[in-house]
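User: My instructor asked us to take a sequence, write out its structure as tokens, and then describe one feature of it. I'm not sure where to start. Here is the sequence I was given:
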Amino acid sequence: MPDLMETVLIERTREMIPDENVQQRRMFGTNCFLVNGNMLICASRRGLLARIGKDLEEEALKRPHASRCVMGGRTMTGFVRVDPEGFETDEDLKTWVDLARSYVSSLPAKKPGEKKPRGKKPKRQREIP
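Assistant: Let's start with the prediction itself. The structure tokens for your sequence are:
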């Protein structure tokens, strides 16, 4: 998909997200849309990355051109990758945007600059006798 096609896809995607609190941010080497600070969907020439949650993942994977999202060798649970053929029509694209919105709208809003804490435990301080 040439750069012009990617730009058109980004515009198509943005038009389908009516939420007031939409942000567009560069993530994962592509353009992502966030609602209330939570990632909704990413759009690029390689396809879509839709955040649909664990509950809808298996059902979404049955749709044509959908596959598990794997980054850095790790499966991203609750995310689905969609090949460009899977959203050629506005109706198909809207289906993916709506699936993602149904999940992301259930999440609490994030404050600006708030990040999810990493899984690292704080270092224990040694007691000095």
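For the description part of your assignment, you could build on this observation: The chain has one domain: 3-104. Try explaining in your own words what that tells you about the chain.
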